[in-house]
């Protein structure tokens, strides 16, 4: 496994695999989704994903993406979480990752290693930005989440998918809290935000994204997106257009 960079087309994906060392993946332009048995983490251009050594994972990129892959040696992995996650990208962290992945030779012996230590230091201080969508083990709950994955804009209650799962709305509601640590409404909102990030990154308008992902009006979508992502959909798209990584 090596560090490096490359432009990837919309929808490009890597099937589940593992690495002997840790891995940071950063979409300097575009949006990245990293999926493991624990669920999916989404990272727009102001965040990056972390996967520990030996943890099976796959990647999918949305929008034309400037993908940056950075290997973290085993001796530095102990300072980072033992589970996958997403970190906010500070200006220093961004520039360090860009330098370490652009293929330039070392100016002085050990320079890359010293810069890699700066990356780890920045990650230790960076707030985690989960954007995490957990996945269930219970077969009844998985039936419901599979239906919602296929159509995030499905109606608001658990009644209809509950019939397909052979479980009552009350049972499913309890399972969402017990297995996934969130309510059905919270889980579905996160699912819709994941889909919205992909659509916005690929150039869909804010209004069309809201309708496609199941919001009854754009204002509700904007409020939910801002609460989860920390910026409005319009601001997010403007940042994509103005990114210095976009040719």
UniProtKB/TrEMBL annotation:
Molecular function GO labels: DNA-binding transcription factor activity; sequence-specific DNA binding
Pfam families: AraC_binding, HTH_18
The keyword Lyase is annotated on this UniProt entry: no
Listed Gene3D superfamilies: Homeodomain-like, Jelly Rolls
SMART domains: HTH_ARAC
Alphabetized InterPro entries for the sequence: AraC-bd, Homeodomain-like_sf, HTH_AraC, RmlC-like_jellyroll, RmlC_Cupin_sf
Top-level taxon of origin: Bacteria
Record protein name field: HTH-type transcriptional regulator RipA
Start and end residues of each HTH araC/xylS-type domain: 142-239
Keywords per UniProt: DNA-binding, Repressor, Transcription, Transcription regulation
């Amino acid at each position: 496994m090596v560090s490096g960079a490359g432009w990837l087309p919309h929808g490009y994906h890597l099937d589940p695999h593992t690495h002997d060392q840790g891995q940071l993946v950063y979409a300097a332009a575009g949006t990245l989704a990293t999926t493991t048995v624990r669920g999916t983490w989404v990272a727009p251009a102001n965040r990056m994903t972390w996967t520990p050594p030996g943890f099976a994972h796959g990647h999918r990129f949305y929008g034309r993406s400037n993908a940056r892959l950075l290997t973290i040696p085993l001796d530095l992995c102990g300072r980072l979480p033992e589970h996958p996650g997403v970190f906010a990208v500070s200006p220093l962290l961004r520039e360090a990752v860009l330098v370490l992945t652009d293929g330039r030779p070392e100016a002085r012996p050990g320079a890359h290693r010293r810069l890699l230590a700066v990356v780890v230091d920045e990650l230790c201080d960076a707030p985690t930005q989960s954007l995490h969508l957990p996945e269930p083990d219970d077969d009844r709950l998985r039936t419901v989440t599979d239906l919602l994955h296929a159509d995030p804009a499905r109606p608001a209650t658990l009644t209809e998918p509950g019939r397909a799962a052979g479980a009552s709305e009350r049972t499913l509601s309890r399972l969402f809290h017990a297995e996934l640590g969130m309510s059905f409404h919270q889980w579905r909102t996160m699912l819709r935000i994941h889909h919205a990030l992909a659509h916005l990154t690929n150039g869909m308008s804010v209004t069309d994204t809201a309708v496609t992902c199941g919001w009854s009006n754009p204002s509700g979508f904007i409020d939910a997106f801002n609460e989860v992502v920390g910026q409005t959909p319009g601001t997010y798209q403007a940042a994509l257009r103005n990114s210095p990584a976009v040719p």
